[in-house]
UniProtKB/TrEMBL annotation, chain A:
Short name of any one Pfam family annotated for the protein: ATP-synt_A
Protein name per its UniProtKB record: ATP synthase subunit a
Function description: Key component of the proton channel; it plays a direct role in the translocation of protons across the membrane.
SUPFAM superfamilies in UniProt: F1F0 ATP synthase subunit A
Keywords (A to Z) from UniProt: ATP synthesis, Cell membrane, CF(0), Hydrogen ion transport, Ion transport, Membrane, Transmembrane, Transmembrane helix, Transport
GO molecular function annotations of the record: proton-transporting ATP synthase activity, rotational mechanism
Cellular component GO terms, alphabetical: plasma membrane; proton-transporting ATP synthase complex
Presence of keyword Zinc-finger: no
Localization (cell): Cell membrane; Membrane
Stretches that traverse the bilayer: 33-50, 85-104, 116-137, 149-168, 189-212, 218-243
UniProtKB/TrEMBL annotation, chain B:
Gene Ontology terms describing biological process: proton transmembrane transport
Family, as annotated: Belongs to the bacterial AtpI family.
GO cellular-component term (any): proton-transporting ATP synthase complex
Designated name of the protein: ATP synthase protein I
Ranges of biased composition (kind: Basic and acidic residues): 1-29
Domain of life, per lineage: Bacteria
Stretches that traverse the bilayer: 43-63, 75-95
Keywords for this protein: Hydrogen ion transport, Ion transport, Membrane, Transmembrane, Transmembrane helix, Transport
Function (record text): A possible function for this protein is to guide the assembly of the membrane sector of the ATPase enzyme complex.
Length: 249, 107
């Protein structure tokens, strides 16, 4: 990756066909492979965790139940009683993104959430769902939200476009936030890893100095664990907030 | 145990109520505190992108309208300003919702 004095920080996000000739013809890259791995991992965690169905849960079952409770409380507290209907959707989104973020931190792995195509698709899914739910719950009254209550009618030509732009910016901000955070984290990890290799090529002094970037990378890994969980949480809570606005008033 | 059922029943009810009271505030506050901590950090990360994304959408719409109608800079200029305003509105909405749970400021 870091050959000589160049740092190829973005090469890690390139997609390559996997699984030989079959993957070549299907354009099957690391990204869908990691998506499938993430899905299987989450499903296996829930299935294996809940299989004993014990009254007094074991460790794995307790973990699965905590995850369930966490998202369930988030959905119901944020959206309200209607949140129960959207709980499976929010749960799936949260754990898909969380698993994607964390799988990307493993060596020889790939973080599919670092591609804007993936995050924008997820964000548009949320956006379209919230629009459909809004139209279903509120009907034509939904369009009244684009005119702030109590504002003079003369300002409508200015306020309505601003409100519409604010509304349309939701999927963009939702996707860019996740994508940018993941890219930034992985670029930083790559940079400091490359520093280590470059310093190690300088002889004895370099060997000693190369410990610095390694230490920084360990701290960065901890930061990335936090960011990965936080971004999944933000994505899920914003989904809940958008759905609450769709369901309420 | 069997000597005075009324007394033991009453004492049981009292102790049960006490135990429930002990549990209640904990249950009410604990998820809120944990969630609040997480979402505080989340808000910090949200503020920047909220502002930029509205601007991006504004510029994209302005550019698209210009391309479609052939009115080169007019809509781009207009929608860049509208996008900026929408970005400020997004951040204002975000910040306003943080303050409300504590104590409600005036108007």
């Amino acid at each position: 990756m870091a050959a000589g004095s160049t740092i190829d920080a973005l090469g890690q996000f390139e997609l390559h066909p996997m699984l030989g000739g079959l993957g070549q013809s299907l354009h099957f890259s690391q990204s869908p492979v990691m998506m499938i791995v993430a899905s299987i991992l989450v499903l296996a965690f829930l299935y294996v965790g809940m299989r004993p169905a014990a009254v007094v849960p074991g460790r794995l079952q307790a973990a699965a139940e905590i995850c369930y409770d966490f998202i369930y409380n988030m959905a119901v507290d944020t959206i309200g009683p209607e949140g129960r209907a959207f709980f499976p959707f929010v749960f799936t989104l949260f754990f898909f993104i969380l698993a994607g973020n964390y799988l990307g931190l493993l060596p020889f792995s790939f973080a599919f959430t670092s591609h804007v195509a993936v995050t924008l698709a997820l964000a548009l899914l949320v956006f379209v769902l919230s629009v459909i739910v809004s139209l279903k719950a509120q009907g034509a009254k939904f369009f009244a939200h684009f005119m702030p209550a109590g504002a003079p009618v003369a300002l409508a030509p200015l306020l309505v476009p601003i409100e519409i732009l604010s509304f349309l910016s939701r999927p963009v901000s939702l996707s860019i936030r996740l994508f940018a955070n993941m890219v930034a984290g992985h670029v930083m990890l790559e940079m400091f890893a490359a520093f280590t290799i470059m310093l190690a090529g300088l002889g004895l002094v370099g060997d000693v100095l190369a410990v610095g970037p390694v230490a920084i990378n360990i701290a960065l890994m901890a930061l990335e664990l936090l960011v990965g969980a936080l971004q999944a949480y933000v994505f899920a809570i914003l989904t809940c907030i958008y759905l609450r606005e769709a369901v309420a008033h | 145990m069997g000597k005075d059922p009324d007394d033991s029943q009453e004492s049981f009810d009292r102790r049960l109520r006490q135990a429930m009271d002990r549990q209640k505030p904990d249950r009410a506050t604990q998820p809120k505190a944990a969630g609040g901590d997480m979402s505080d950090l989340g808000v910090v990360l949200r503020a920047g992108t909220e502002m930029v994304s509205a601007l991006v959408v504004g510029v994209a719409i302005g550019w698209g309208l210009d391309r479609w109608l052939g009115s080169r800079p007019a809509f781009l200029i207009l929608f860049t300003f509208l996008g900026g305003a929408a970005g400020v509105l997004n951040v204002w909405r975000l910040v306003r919702t943080i303050d409300t749970p504590g104590d409600k400021p005036g108007p």
